[in-house]
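Project standup — Tuesday

K.O.: blocked on the structure for the chain from last sprint. Re-posting the sequence here as requested.
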Amino acid sequence: MKPFSISIVICMIFIFTVNAIAQPISNPTSFALGDAYITKASGVQALYWNPAKLGIIKNPFTISLLQSNFSVYNNAFSLAYYNDITGKYLSEDDKKELLDKIPESGFELNGNFGTFIPCLALSYKNYAIAFSIIGAGYGNFSKNYFDLLLNGNEWETVYDFKDNDAEAALFGEIKLGYGKELNIEKLKEFFVIKDSIPPIYAGLNLGILHGYNYAEITNFEGHLYTKDTGFFVDNNIEYRTCAGGNGLRFDVGLFSQITHNISIGLTVNNIFGFIHWNKDCKSNINRFYADSIMVSELEDSLFTSIDTSYSINSFTQKIPISMRLGSSYKYKKIEMYFEYVQGFKNSILTSTQPKFSIGCEYFVHKNIPIRIGFGIGGNEPWHFSYGIAFEKSRFEIGFAFRYYKAFLPNYSQGVAFSFGSMLKF
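H.V.: unblocked you, prediction finished:
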């Protein structure tokens, strides 16, 4: 295998990975509100965001006709900067500026999506069921790749590519949920409470998971060195793959309408969450080595390469627990939403770095809400969102845009879009 083949393998692994499972499947409303949504979700949407809201029956029957969202973002370049350097001859100052924008940890590119299977996500009274496609992934490129590409290989300089990393999973999920109002009088009697308590709703859902594909780089070592007798290169990549598995996870939620204007909600997600990968599991090794190679002698025969794979035992991928705490405040035609998300373990699915979101909804017409939202923290860059919808008593449709590290698309380091429609009866 030639040196460039390894780079292509890594690139393909993480460019097509996704991380939608890092949060519930988004919809235009949650997207536009910056993900501050657990107190607003209702009907079939409550199944993913807060199953306790299934206990509040606004519409006895809801069905998602079409819902999909995607995003792509990076940790270094804005769209304006990319357009500025594309096709341009780069001076030494331009090259330095480009490299300075890339963190020392490397260039990270993320793409994610989530979708309900059309007409197979619905709620009836206190119950809901949904079929969805979900993915998760992470990938990182060493900064030294860009240094080598822009400046060439400097004399007697060792280039270390150890920062390359990637992990990805793709699976489907059948989710079942139920919510109801708790018996307040029994709670007051149990906790010896005499004061009045607002209604409290509780909910539970079960996610049955079927894994389709999993890939993870378990070891990557890469070096390139130039000396007077030629250049030396040694790259080794080890990664494991699996073509199927099964698992489950639980979510629990609480919700209470404290006053006419104020509500609060809490969810704990991914309880007992796991996928056991057990179909066609393999460990793959790709290595190439060359020493004292001159440019005039670049032939396949000069490289020593290893490309092999072997079967391995099944393994379990844990889905770490995360918590969401949210509230909302309504004043006339305006409603504000606030949310805090906390993961309890770092993974491709969760982050121990807390995320804070705030969103605002305003009805410019009784059927037309406009929404904006902001989120910071977690495993995404800070983002700003806009959205609009058309809502009637039996039907709603909406869309939303999101921009990363910017308020306008031209300066954003990524873009995201969500579209959805739903029937209500």
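K.O.: great, moving the ticket to review. Confidence is low (pLDDT under 50) at residues 1-22. DSSP finds seven helices and 19 strands in the chain.
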